């Protein structure tokens, strides 16, 4: 069972839950950025939660099936067609042998997920099939002409499933380890301002633009020895413009962490477009 | 618990423990591996990140640490090095050593990987007696296998990357090979000895 990549625009990678547990070796966790969307896609086609899916970033994708396969497309909503015939988004659809599944570009959101029954069975590295775009651990980026193997479809289809989590009004913040480095309570400063998503945002981090977070006088110009970083850490470089660390974040960082985004709100960071507004709230 | 320790909450399910130095961070991280259920335990220059448990849990366990390490005898790895790095002569001069003297000292030391980072397979090796400044302008490309010094650290570049460490030699040992069962040759606690060779395998 394979799917052949006919056309790709934008970054398309294979992702599963990632490879946490290797940070002490310098290996980023990687993994799907919008976890609820990826898990929903897997459930719709009867996959185990650990099955690998494709993550399409602000792009398009066409895949040809060599034999009939059930697929489901979730995440950033886009047009989905099979041999030119429109099919529903976020529902299981059957792609006949030889037919081409096509995902259009999403008019809103950033990342669309494509699950296929059996999961994308590329060779795992350190227990995960995820492509890490910082250190390039895992399979290569999905490219035209590539043949993607599928695993054995085992589970039952779930034609209807639970909806996505509601979009949070504001991303909830937990305290970070270096609040004392900032002039004032950094969570209050983050909550009190309106932030805009920066164009350089990627799988490593969501870059935010707004009023600079200033250092406390005692820490002005001081260097922080690199220390371990977590998913959702809001790191503040000397520019004062925060970066929310996403799945491909470096395992250590040398700038103080002002706060941490609540794990349940991280999926939203995967779907915020450059220029969109972000607000924070305190847990 | 040593008075230098402080436990800082890092979000909902992680904590950062501050220790005196990299050696303490390594010792604590190895000690914790046997005693706490965490997703990641990441030593660094003067901290240990424990990801996957609450600060309260970390506090309760770390409170029993008296500063000892019960796994100081990590695996010993020997790395053959051709000491012909571009920065070797100037660095030896700066340290008031002959090139041969620097090589003799560097190969006599048993280094220990204090922590990893920067890239998969890159270890910060402790043991050198020198404090070496980084290059004023980093190289745009450092070849994989390059052996460099910076600060009190020795490091071996696992893959080609920009770099500001002073390069003293090169090896053909694969620091990172994703096809191996253990892709990283070096992990925190691994002991390393460098062996001076005239040429690497496959060179004539």
Provide structural commentary.
The complex is a heterodimer of chains A (283) and B (204). By secondary structure, chain A is mainly β. Chain A folds into 2 domains: 2-149, no CATH class; 171-282, Cyclophilin-like (Cyclophilin). In chain A, strands 1, 2, 3, 4, 5, 6, 7, 8 and 9 form a 9-stranded antiparallel sheet that branches. The longest helix of chain A has 10 residues, at 35-44. Chain A contains 3 helices and 19 strands. In chain A, strand 11 and strand 12 (205-209) form a beta hairpin. Chain A has helices spanning 35-44, 186-192, 266-269, and strands at 2-15, 53-65, 69-75, 80-82, 85-87, 93-95, 100-103, 111-116, 147-149, 171-175, 195-197, 205-209, 227-228, 233-235, 243-245, 252-253, 257-261, 277-278, 280-282. The mean pLDDT of chain B is 92. Chain B folds into 2 domains: 6-62, Gyrase A, domain 2 (2-Layer Sandwich), CATH 3.30.1360; 76-196, Cyclophilin. Chain B starts with 5 loop residues before the first strand and ends in an 8-residue tail after the last strand. Chain B is built from 4 helices and 13 strands. In chain B, a hairpin with a 1-residue loop joins strand 6 and strand 7. At the A-B interface, strand 13 of A face strand 2, strand 3, strand 4, strand 6 and strand 7 of B.
* End-to-end separation of chain A: 46 Å
CATH superfamily of the largest domain in chain B: Cyclophilin-like
Overall tally of domains of chain B: 2
The count of DSSP E runs of length 2 or more, i.e. the number of strands of chain A, is 19
The CATH C-level class name of the largest domain in chain B: Mainly Beta
Give the low-pLDDT segments of chain B: none
Helix content of chain A: under 10%
Mean pLDDT of chain B: 92
pLDDT below 50 for ≥5 consecutive residues: which ranges of chain A?
A: none
Sequence of strands across the biggest β-sheet of chain B: 1-2-4-3
Which sequence of SSEs, written as H and E, runs from N to C of chain A? EHEEEEEEEEEHEEEEEEEHEE
- Tally of extended strands of chain B? 13
Shape of chain B: elongated
């Amino acid at each position: 069972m394979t799917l052949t990549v006919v056309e790709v625009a934008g970054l398309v990678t294979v992702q599963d839950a990632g490879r946490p547990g290797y940070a002490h070796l310098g290996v980023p966790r990687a993994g799907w950025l919008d976890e609820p969307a990826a898990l929903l896609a897997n459930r719709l086609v009867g996959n185990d939660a650990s099955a690998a899916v494709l993550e399409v970033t602000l792009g398009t994708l066409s895949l040809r099936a060599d034999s009939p396969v059930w697929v489901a497309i979730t995440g950033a909503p886009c047009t989905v067609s099979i041999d030119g015939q429109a099919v529903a988004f976020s529902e299981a659809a059957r792609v006949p042998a030889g037919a081409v599944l096509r995902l259009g570009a999403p008019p809103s959101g950033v990342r669309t997920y494509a699950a296929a029954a059996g999961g994308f069975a590329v060779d795992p590295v350190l227990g995960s099939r995820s492509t890490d775009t910082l250190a390039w651990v895992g399979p290569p980026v999905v490219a035209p002409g590539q043949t993607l193997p599928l695993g054995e479809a085992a589970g039952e289809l779930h034609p209807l499933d639970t909806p996505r989590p509601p979009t949070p009004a504001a991303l909830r913040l937990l305290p970070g380890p270096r609040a004392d480095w900032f002039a004032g309570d950094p969570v209050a400063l983050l909550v009190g301002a309106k932030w805009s998503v920066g164009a350089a945002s990627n799988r490593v981090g969501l870059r935010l633009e707004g009023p600079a977070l200033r250092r406390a006088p005692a820490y002005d110009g001081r260097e922080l020895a690199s220390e371990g970083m977590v998913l959702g850490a809001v790191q503040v470089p000397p520019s004062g413009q925060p970066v929310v660390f996403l799945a491909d974040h470096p395992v250590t960082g040398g700038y103080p962490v002002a706060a941490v985004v609540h794990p349940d709100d991280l999926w939203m960071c995967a779907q915020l477009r450059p220029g969109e507004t972000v607000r924070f709230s305190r847990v | 618990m040593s008075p230098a320790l402080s436990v800082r909450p890092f979000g909902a399910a992680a904590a950062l423990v501050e220790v005196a130095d990299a050696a303490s961070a390594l010792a604590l991280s190895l000690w914790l591996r046997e005693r706490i259920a965490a997703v990641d335990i990441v030593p660094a220059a003067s901290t240990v990140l424990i990801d996957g448990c609450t600060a309260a849990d970390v506090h309760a366990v770390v409170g029993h640490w008296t500063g000892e390490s019960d796994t100081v005898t990590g695996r010993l790895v020997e790395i053959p090095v051709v000491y012909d790095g571009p920065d070797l002569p100037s660095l030896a001069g700066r340290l008031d050593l002959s090139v041969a003297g620097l090589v003799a000292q560097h190969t006599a030391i048993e280094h220990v990987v204090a922590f990893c980072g920067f890239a998969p397979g890159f270890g910060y090796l402790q043991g050198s007696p020198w404090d070496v400044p980084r290059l004023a302008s980093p190289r745009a490309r450092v070849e994989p296998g390059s052996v460099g010094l910076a600060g009190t650290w020795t490091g071996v570049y696992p893959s080609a990357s920009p770099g500001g460490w002073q390069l003293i030699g090169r090896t053909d040992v694969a620091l990172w090979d994703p096809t191996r069962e253990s892709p990283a040759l070096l992990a925190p606690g691994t002991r390393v000895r460098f062996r001076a060779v005239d040429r690497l395998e496959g060179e004539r």
